[in-house]
Amino acid sequence: MRALYPGSFDPVTFGHLDLIQRASGLFDVVIVAVLRNPNKEPCFPLEQRLMQLTQATSHLPQVKVTSFEGLTVDFALQQQARVILRGLRALSDFEFELQLAHTNASLSAQVDTLFMATAVNYSFLSSSVVKEVARFGGDVQHMVPAAVAGDLHRLFNRPVG
After folding, report:
1. Chain segment 91-128, per-residue pLDDT in tens
2. 64 an active-site residue?
3. What is the full DSSP assignment across 69-86?
């Protein structure tokens, strides 16, 4: 069975990678898809986010990294993924994620949403928090892969570590 894990991944965090790693043990193929959202201005261009994810998941042969635009459920159907994966860090995530799941279910009964709880040690992580810490010169090496930490520090003109 194929699963789709969509997101902006701006940048990818150890929380994202924890979910990808665990999902790769549950599904034959995990499609990690970076959403091209014209309404958002990401810190990293699409190509760089794809490269960051590809490098970070290179040890997982069943993970495929790609990008998409449009409705997630349409892309899931196009990729023959029967499951959309969504990570939950805290109860506050649940209301928004449940609304998305219900919206997707109203668009296609062929795709289900699976919620996975983030590992406790990554429950505080979000891409926004990581960018904020990096922007003000904080150490993010315990939050993101080393290459991503370097990219963030270069982006914000800060020394690494």
Report:
1. 777 888 899 999 999 999 999 999 999 999 998 899 99
2. no
3. -S-HHHHHHHTT-SEEEE
- Of how many residues is the chain composed? 161
Q: Which of 24, 49, 86, 127 is catalytic?
A: 127
Q: Give the separation between CA 87 and CA 21, rounded to whole angstroms.
A: 12
Q: Is the dihedral of CA 59, 64, 66, 70 positive or negative?
A: negative
Q: What is the CATH code for 2-120?
A: 3.40.50.620
123 part of the active site? no
Q: Which residues pair with residue 6 across a beta bridge?
A: 33
Active site residue 106: no
Q: Is 102 a catalytic residue?
A: no
Helix, strand, coil fractions of the chain, as percent rounded to 5: 40, 20, 40
